[in-house]
Amino acid sequence: MAWGKLDSVGYSAGMHAFITDTSFDSRLRSTISAAWAVFARKVGSTLIPINKEASMQLQYAFVLKQLLPMALQHPDERAEIELEPGVNMGAGSNNIDILVHGASSSGEMKIAIELKCYRKIAASGDKRGAHDIFMKDVYEDLQVLEQYVAQGIATRGVALVMHDHKLFVNPRVKGGKCWTYDTSNGHTFQGGHFTVQVGSRKKPVDIQLARSYTFNWEKFGQFWFCELEGRCPQELPRPHMSSVERRYPIPGNGNFGAIAAADQAGS
Length: 267
Prior knowledge:
- The protein is of the alpha+beta class.
- The protein has helices at 8-15, 17-20, 24-44, 53-67, 131-150, 243-247, and strands at residues 78-83, 86-88, 93-95, 98-104, 107-118, 156-163, 188-189, 192-194, 207-209, 213-214, 218-220, 223-228.
- The strands form 4 sheets. A 6-stranded mixed sheet has the order 1-4-5-6-12-11, sandwiched between helices. A two-stranded antiparallel ribbon has the order 2-3.
- The protein is globular, with a radius of gyration of 18 Å.
- The model is unreliable at 1-13 and 236-267 (pLDDT under 50).
């Protein structure tokens, strides 16, 4: 079975969570995962061409916008998306790739989404290097998402990552400095402080992560896809927790990660 794939029962339940969950917040969050699943399969089958991050953002936002109305089940519920909204981060401004706004009688919710795309062949047609910078940038996106949540800009933060470089997922060895920013399949880390410089210019790096993350990749066509959301270290999944509960958490149960169970990969 391919890495990160759920069994048929788990997959069906998970895909429908954005419809069946009683909590609007949970439905809204699950819609992001459902849109990602649809997007990944369409990209993998070449129905959606992606040549760089800008096209990834536009095409994923289109899929998400089509699914959001299905998550609305009551007259008081509404949801919309915003591309590249500017926000004040205290030390400067930033633009969120996609911001999902949700509101109901129980309150408001904002989910920030950051996207990362790596193609071995750039949009210009030239070979793309800088794989080490891409790996570091994934970790920087996780830091930005944590900052959005900590500063009250967003309620939750989700990173969506895609690429066509198998060594990000299944490296032969982890010998370079870039593997400080480990993206390999199944890798879990409990937050931390990252300062290792990569790239030829050796720009200073200062990444602080407070939450725990697990990389679980799914492959469709020539691409790999991963969805990441941080969890507090003390909120690691319980061994007996079902893969569906791990992937589509019920708010308040202490599980914030959209993490397709790695243990399903070996079944």
